[in-house]
Amino acid sequence: MGSIALEHVNKAFGGHQVISDVSLEIEDGAFVVFVGPSGCGKSTLLRLIAGLEDTTSGAILLDGVDVTDQGPAHRGLAMVFQSYALYPHMTVRQNIAFPLKMANIEKPVADKKVDAAARVLNLTDYLDRKPRQLSGGQRQRVAIGRAIVREPKAFLFDEPLSNLDAALRVNMRIEITELHQQLKTTMVYVTHDQVESMTMADKIVVLNAGQVEQFGSPMDLYKTPANKFVAGFIGSPKMNFLAGAAADKYSATTIGIRPEHMRISRESGDWPGRVGVAEHLGSDTFLHVHVDGAELQTVRTEGDKDFAPGDQVWLSPDPSRIYRFDRGGLALR
Amino acid sequence: MAREVTLQRKLTFTALAWLVAFLLFFPILWTILTSFKTEAEAIASPPTIIPTWTLENYFEVQARSDYFRHFFNSVWISVGSTLIALLIGIPSAWAMAFTPTKRTKDVLMWMLSTKMMPAVGVLVPMYLIFRDTGLLDTVWGLVIILTLINLPIVIWMLYTYFREIPVDILEAARMDGAILWKELIFVLVPMAVPGIASTLLLNIILAWNEAFWTINLTASKAAPLTAFISSFSSPQGLFWAKLSAASTLAIAPILVLGWLSQRQLVRGLTFGAVK
Lengths: 333, 275
Known about the structure:
heterodimer, A: about 325 residues, alpha+beta, Rossmann fold, CATH 2.40.50.140, 2 domains, five-stranded antiparallel beta sheet, about 35% strand, globular, B: about 280 residues, mainly alpha, MetI-like fold, two-stranded antiparallel ribbon
């Protein structure tokens, strides 16, 4: 079991409010991702759940039990750090076995668990090595192994893939998702990468300036963002925003159109513009179009569409996929 | 051409290094040489360089006072005070390195400032406290005072080493279920072994060589080797050869320790400075 509940949690460092009145319910077995720009408080929120930071006010409940005043060693949660945080003086085996040693588990039982974890994570051949003799991906696996052997109530991941190169990151992303499907243990995962959040999460918590902007499934956030911040943060490339006359037409202060919902044409459309940069990804092409009197607009087209920088074009939105926002940035429905 | 220049530079620097090393070592060398001279040779002018290699001074020193008793007092005092200082210093440095507050720097400065005070300024009150508590001329008394004297240095050194250790690793230990003392014993201390070892060695050397308090607060029972040496500068005049023999005996153990551990000492003292 591993349900996590936050009730009106606040955290301030000195006079600086980092987390403001956050309340959340994380169900047992869910994969929840905290996402937001750097400095939004997502890591702090994770550390509050871990017990590595004390709350300024509010309560944290694990399986309905208030653990707000318990230290990290007593909460029964496991954490994977961005820096891996392996014990450099111990072998891989000792690293993975460390939580079992702390729990006073007998050595034969511990050895069996370590071997099982090593098998799952393809670390069997490396058990006698020291962390410095491993590659980044292997170190990350050891960190995960150390987390899984003790069968925690929940796993906490603090940007675990940020130090890996792009190809490895995709692999590890899949491995962690598969691990979640196997173990069915609650996982809370912090990232600034919205692609990671969209692909891995059951539920996403979008944080901004210490507050929850929206909590929902990835497709909920994509389809019905609660406000302009979430609309701009979720989705890649980022949503286009238009204000002024273009928005007035739809009786909103601002309208948003995702790049994949923007039509581009050489002949006609709503807004005239000029192609700036064209990014060819093969399958897709992202065109950055300078529209008169508006911000740079991004259009996603098929890879074989042939637009070159400097081309005069017309843009028009897919009328059924226009997001409307009021003066305060809240979505109008 | 370029190669010749570097060779020349290399030779110059090597010669310079040897010269500096020789200058630094000369007083010790001279003491050792003098200890093997007769008293007449020792005060001869111009000085004789090569002694007659007599062991007479050593026999006489041992006959006049018990070297081994002083030696063991020195061992107890330096090792005991160092271990207690580490026992106090490790948790203190841990607290300051990993959970610093606004005042941590001030606390560290304050600790260091106690080293700036001239010891003789508090000699009388310390002497009276020692007398009234019955610590005068006891090994325990010296262990206590040397622990207190060297604690600032121990904490400063450990603090510097601990700051090099990523806090993530200690947090990982906490998440893995390590309570405070297990975190210190199983994670912090093994990772800081080079730093702790050089702190230990340096502190033993400092405590071994400490002369002011060890001479002033002892009479005979607890007198360590520093008092042993000073007892040879007697009112009847200085006997240079015997004084040298006593000094050689006093510095020999620490010289050997320093020699054996020089690699560790240098590594520890430059920890963090050289990546």
